[in-house]
Amino acid sequence: MKRISATLLTPVLAIVLILSGCGGFGSPAATAPPAVEGSAAESQASGGKFNVVSIVNGNLGDKSFFDSAEAGLKRLEGAGVISYKTIELGGADADQPKWKDALIEVSESGEYDVVICGTWQMNEYLDEIAVQYPDQKYAIYDSVVNLPNVVSLSYKQNDMGYIIGVFAASMTTQTGFDRITPEKVIGFVGGEDGPVINDFLVGYIEGALSVDAGMKVDVRYVASFVDTAKGKELAQAMITQNKADIVWGVAGLSGNGAAEAAYENNAWFIGVDSDQEATFTGAQAALAGITLTSGLKNIGESLEWLFGELKEGKGYWGEEMWLGLELNGVGVVTDKNFKTVPEPVQKATLDALEKVQSGAVKVGTAFGDGAVDIASLRSSVTP
């Protein structure tokens, strides 16, 4: 599959950017998108709605990954671009057989112009099923399927991770700030020890070391994106054992457990994928108070970009689109609690964002031939 960085800005996404005021996708030059001939996208370009189904191999309410996708689909529906249905299937091991069955069912129906799914856990199922239904169009986010009827949306989470690493390391040096300990230790709770999560981690560690070469990073993996109890246990251990005073939860619903541990053990939390300070509500409202910022993987905005392109009769079938800072594929929350941290931390974070976006800073990655040695990197910063 050819890898392309998206650089085209559609009217739908332009509205989103104006409202959000933050940066987004893309980077190097992109090739012109091919016309989508004889496809659902071509038939819809004249003004009709796309009929879309979103397969969620988990549950809404994660306040991060799946909620971001759902929010983007809702905005598209409100703009009259799509009509859609979301199918929640659960994220436990026992739920996995339903994921494949649901993909087969919606593909066989012939009802949908585009079938959407996401995460690395779905790519093998989609790789098998999309071959059997070559006329069906699919979009997968945060994973890659190399087939001519699939567009893959990938994200430069390493770039976003670098900025979050600068923020966390800058915060942990502010010993006069509430909850900050003298130890230069920050935490990272990952959903699983795999390339996507480790791409976040590479940026996080590199950003932290750019602030202080002696910074330590306690890295632990839940091995699940839906186990809040385990996420809480791991975060509590790094806070109590190694004095980590700020923890980044990159673990979906499991990361909410890390937020609980930070709240209960006098530490700070950083959210992921969505603005988790904003999404912690109801019984979790107290967690918003200790969430200082979030690293954004804007799944919803990327889906808006994709359907804006399809509405124009352009398609990326068979392509892997890498989405970065320039068009809001990834980003960092810089309002609300972020504005309460010391001015030097705010400045360092915004400077890092500018340097990454301009290309002045090149961030390592867990992908490709030049991938960082993750085991060595983790070992070099272990408390």
Characteristics:
383 residues; alpha/beta; Rossmann fold; seven-stranded parallel beta sheet; six-stranded mixed beta sheet; 41% helix; globular
What does this structure look like?
The protein has 383 residues and is α/β, with parallel strands linked by helices. The protein has two domains: 2-155 and 299-323, Rossmann fold, CATH 3.40.50.2300; 157-296 and 342-380, Rossmann fold, CATH 3.40.50.2300. Helix content is 41%, strand content 19%. The protein contains 14 helices and 13 strands. It has helices at 11-20, 40-44, 65-78, 96-109, 123-132, 157-172, 195-211, 228-242, 253-264, 276-279, 285-288, 299-311, 343-358, 374-380; strands at 2-5, 50-56, 82-88, 114-118, 137-141, 150-155, 185-190, 216-221, 246-250, 268-273, 291-297, 319-323, 330-332. It has a seven-stranded parallel β-sheet, with helices on both faces. Strands 8-7-9-10-11-13 form a six-stranded mixed β-sheet, with helices on both faces. Helix 1 runs antiparallel to helix 12, helix 3 (65-78) packs parallel to helix 12 and helix 4 packs parallel to helix 5. The longest helix has 17 residues, at 195-211. The radius of gyration is 20 Å and the shape is globular. Residues 7-43 have low confidence and may be disordered.
